[in-house]
Amino acid sequence: MRLLLVEDDLNLSQSIKLELKKAGYAVDVAYDGEDGAFLGTVENYDAVILDLGLPKLSGLEVLRCWREANNTIPVIILTARDSWQEKVDGFKAGADDYLGKPFHFQELLARLNAVLKRTQSSPPPSLKAFGIELNEFDQTVTVNHQPEIVLTALEFRLLRYLMMNPNRLLSKAQLREHIYEYDSDPESNVIEVYINRLRHIVGQDLIITRRSQGYLFGAKK
């Protein structure tokens, strides 16, 4: 299973990552709220361990951003702010569990396993918009109830990002960041290539080009 850890304390984050890897998890780490919010939007994680006191964007803001975008990824809040009000704010924002610092790693692991057990019993998550249903477990897409289509990793990541930002103008730079690790040449036409491939899958009119600005998903010409 793949986890996202958003924690600005370098020593603590590396320690947690090491222990989680020993427990059999793959772990990505973000050290500020902006990077954490971005990764939690464009990547497919089984759960997130999220600190509240983050630079650039607070943990609560990150969590609210995900929930407002209908991102139901399970989130455990990890913070030194152990007051009852902080807990209430966290749960109101959509947290699945809460653990105050300092803590024993075995308790974090137990809470993580409990959250994953609850969520894994749920149906596979999907995104739905404009007659399109994107299944996030097997990376397939269904268009207007037609037979499902298996997507490549890049097609899935790009379509997921577009669907989570409907009617929002997205620049090539934003989309390039979304697939950057797969693109050896950031100045290439990889964005145009995959946008065209997605148009053949979901329909030519659903992804609109704004010349010199970027793309909109779901907008009308």
Indicate the topology.
Elements: E1 2-6, H1 10-22, E2 26-30, H2 33-42, E3 47-51, H3 59-68, E4 75-79, H4 84-93, E5 97-100, H5 105-120, E6 126-129, E7 132-135, E8 140-143, E9 149-150, H6 153-163, H7 172-179, H8 190-202, E10 207-210, E11 214-217
Parallel strand pairs: 1-2, 1-3, 3-4, 4-5
Antiparallel strand pairs: 6-7, 7-8, 8-9, 10-11
Helix pairs in contact: 2-3, 6-8
Write a concise synopsis of the structure shown.
The protein is an alpha/beta fold. It has helices at 10-22, 33-42, 59-68, 84-93, 105-120, 153-163, 172-179, 190-202, and strands spanning 2-6, 26-30, 47-51, 75-79, 97-100, 126-129, 132-135, 140-143, 149-150, 207-210, 214-217.
Classified in CATH, the superfamily of the largest domain is Response regulator
Uncertain segments: none
How much β-strand is present in the residues? Answer: 15-25%
Q: Summarize the helix and strand pattern as letters.
A: EHEHEHEHEHEEEEHHHEE
Morphology: elongated
Overall mean pLDDT:
85
Total number of strands: 11
Q: Major β-sheet, in short?
A: 5 strands, parallel
- Kindly provide the radius of gyration, computed on alpha-carbon positions and rounded to a whole number of angstroms: 18 Å
Helical stretch count?
Answer: 8
Assign the structural class, choosing from mainly alpha, mainly beta, alpha/beta, alpha+beta, or little secondary structure.
alpha/beta
Count of folded domains: 2
